[in-house]
Amino acid sequence: VHQFQKTEDGWRERMIDVVEADSTNDADTYPPTSPVVEENGCKHELIPRLRQVLAPQVTPAVELLLSSNYDQYDHFPEGTVVEICPDALCLIQDVAKVLEESQGAALIIDYGEEGTADTLRAFSQHKQVPLTSRPGQVDVTADVDFFALKNCLSGKEKTLSINAFGPVQQGKFLMRMGAGELTVNAIEKEETTEEQAQLFADALKYLVTPEHMGEKFKVLALARKRDGLFAPAGIE
């Protein structure tokens, strides 16, 4: 995921830099051991820290990923951060080619929004930690930009007949597809115990309610668009 920030001089890419800091007790420093230097009779451990900085000049990523879409991003105010994931766009285009040949359809389910934002973050032991805290030891993730996924299938040079439908919230999609009825039927079976019934109810709640996965997760469908063909089930 590439991050770009709007400045008074135009778009600049966020990069990772190393800064020397004089510290001895910081759980988020990397690496854990560093050279010790002596100054004025006192010993100090120089710990290289990683930080996010803005590139002073236009980088190749800005030219490659933003230059062709300046109209889309020009209206953003100074300070705005956008994220672009080239691999995701290539993946969608590859899937579209397979669907064109097979005349099939695809469902893409993930957490994200229709648009870009500053979502790059890191997690360790189910808790969010500083992005540059411990490289290689934390999970780094970012939200999916569903607008970008749809847009890469509808460009001026589009040659495939695959269209994107949605996205819709996961909760709405699952309920439209009968998740509620399926859960009730499973609970009402004679062989279902009270403990199992509670597990079924809790699972449905976790998947469809806004406070859990219901709103944050989205569902996008890819399929061929023909005259008279409606959106795939659950997406309408």
Main beta sheet strand tally, sense and closure: 5 strands, antiparallel
Question: How does the overall form come out from the CA principal axes?
Answer: flat
Rg estimate, integer Å: 24 Å
Helix content: 25-40%
Low-pLDDT residue intervals, each spanning 5 or more residues: 23-33
Beta-strand percent range: 25-35%
Give the ordered list of helices and strands.
EEEEHHEHEEEEEHEHHHE
| Termini separation | 30 Å
Strand order of the largest sheet: 3-4-2-1-5
| Helix segment tally | 7
Class inferred from helices and paired strands: alpha+beta
Mean pLDDT, nearest integer? 86
How many beta-strand segments? 12
Short description:
With 236 residues, the protein is of the alpha+beta class.
Describe this structure in words.
The chain is an alpha+beta fold. Helices cover 28% and strands 33% of the residues. It is built from seven helices and twelve strands. The strands form three sheets. Strands 3-4-2-1-5 form a five-stranded antiparallel β-sheet. The chain has a four-stranded mixed β-sheet with strand order 10-6-12-11. A three-stranded antiparallel β-sheet has the order 8-7-9, with no helix packed on it. Helix 6 packs antiparallel against helix 7. The longest helix has 17 residues, at 86-102. The protein starts with a strand and ends in a 12-residue tail after the last strand.
